[in-house]
């Protein structure tokens, strides 16, 4: 997921590069890092306050997860999570392609 978000920024940054883009790309990468670092802290904090814990990867693969639309297997849940970052990356590639043709 982080690779796709970073790829989106990199594609747009390389296509529309300029002197001012270095600061913008740096800020975006800082936000992407925070987007993944802050939620990574939640299971550790919750483990201290409650008796529940996050699923391990093998438990997730065996049991799947309950979503708002019902039970999903690990493969379905992973696909659902990675679909939007993939579409965002493809959108960035489409924007760069259209801009290069114009």
Can you put this structure into words, describing what you see?
- The chain crosses the membrane at residues 20-42, 80-101.
- Keywords: Membrane, Transmembrane, Transmembrane helix.
- There is one protein chain.
- By secondary structure, the chain is mainly α.
- It has one domain (2-101).
- The chain is built from four helices and two strands, in the order αααββα.
- A two-stranded antiparallel ribbon has the order 1-2.
- Helix 1 packs antiparallel against helix 2 and helix 1 packs parallel to helix 4.
- The longest helix has 29 residues, at 21-49.
- The radius of gyration is 18 Å and the shape is flat.
Our estimate of the beta-strand percent is 5-15%
Termini separation comes to 30 Å
As laid out across the biggest beta sheet, the strand order is 1-2
Number of strands: 2
Which structural class do the helices and strands define? mainly alpha
What proportion of the residues is helical, as a percent range?
over 70%
Shape: flat
Report the biggest beta sheet as strand number plus sense, adding barrel if it closes: 2 strands, antiparallel
Low-confidence stretches: none
Query: How many helices in DSSP terms?
Result: 4
Query: Could you say how many structural domains there are in total?
Result: 1
This entry's quaternary arrangement is single chain
Rg calculated over all Cα atoms: 18 Å
Q: What average pLDDT do the residues reach?
A: 89
Order of helices and strands, N to C? HHHEEH
């Amino acid at each position: 997921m982080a690779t796709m978000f970073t790829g989106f920024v990199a594609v747009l940054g390389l296509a529309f590069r300029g002197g001012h883009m270095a600061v913008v790309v740096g800020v975006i990468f800082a936000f992407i890092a925070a987007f993944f670092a802050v939620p990574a802290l939640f299971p550790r904090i919750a483990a201290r306050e409650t008796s529940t814990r996050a699923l391990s990867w093998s438990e997730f693969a065996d049991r799947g997860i309950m979503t708002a639309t019902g039970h999903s297997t690990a493969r379905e849940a992973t696909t659902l999570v990675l679909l939007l970052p993939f579409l965002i990356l493809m959108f960035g590639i489409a924007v760069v392609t259209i801009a290069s043709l114009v």
